[in-house]
Amino acid sequence: MSEPLLKTRIHRIEYAAEDVLTFDLRPPGGDLLPPFTAGAHIDVHMPQGVARSYSLLNHAQERHRYLIGIKREAAGRGGSAWMHDAAKVGALIDISAPRNNFTLVEDAAHSVLVAGGIGITPMWCMVQSLAALGRPWTLHFRARSRSSAPLLHELAQPGIAEHVHLGFSDEGAGRRLDWTRLVAQAPEGSHFYCCGPNAMIEAFEGACADVPPERVHVEHFAAKQAAAVEGGFAVRLARSGHELTVEPGQSILESLRACGVVVPSSCQQGVCGACETRVLAGRPDHRDLVLSQAEKDSGKTMMICCSGSHSKELVLDI
Ligand code: FES
Known about the structure:
By secondary structure, the chain is of the alpha/beta class. It contains 7 helices and 18 strands.
């Protein structure tokens, strides 16, 4: 069963930084969009049949539009290039409802936000929520250069700028984060958030190793681990009674598609959560970056785009 999509119109496209455009998506009839919370993302379904996930960056109280920032990824799989080159103002485009794997804990004693490059987009949404709620926060934003960093104008506003620490690779001094200090000097009970390249997230997770996991939150752009495509196990679909074998070289998602079973998906690398599926029996081999360790250990759900099976059979709630 695939999730229902929302039709939106591309109301505005704006230059935000080198290789970064923002897209303002609105319902064609002027209706209200489903609500979202800070840290949420949507999947944009492009006409060529690909879907990609992008964080919402506008204020979470807005219901008339979704605002996303898209960086053209030279080494990407073509989704960002299509949005940069082919998407036009006035065109209709399908999106998913918002989903949140990177939820802001609004009543935390303090929030420490760390962003790298385009990873600033969910953080700007969080900053607006925290500022509106009057909660204490600090943002550390690192980028290659000022010209490549989106949202600098917004971050320079009075009431915001005092909480923001910027660093740019091409300016040398101050570009490196002092991770140990960042964690050690954070007020007691702080929650820590990071969105950026995998190298930044690894350094962040290392620095937060002694922080209780429920206070450490990350959002990945890309997979860290290869997908499980060893195959050689059976998948039974509990609702339809259908049974299939996942062959070597295939993911569960690919096997389902080959049999004509349509299930929601977007990133296909275990970072967006679109393909999360309930597991009724069997032991998944988790390879995603969405589920927490406790969720993985429970084995109740799995991301079928990248995860495989440790057991001979998996029974899925499909
Ligand atoms: Fe994104 Fe599976 S499609 S996690």
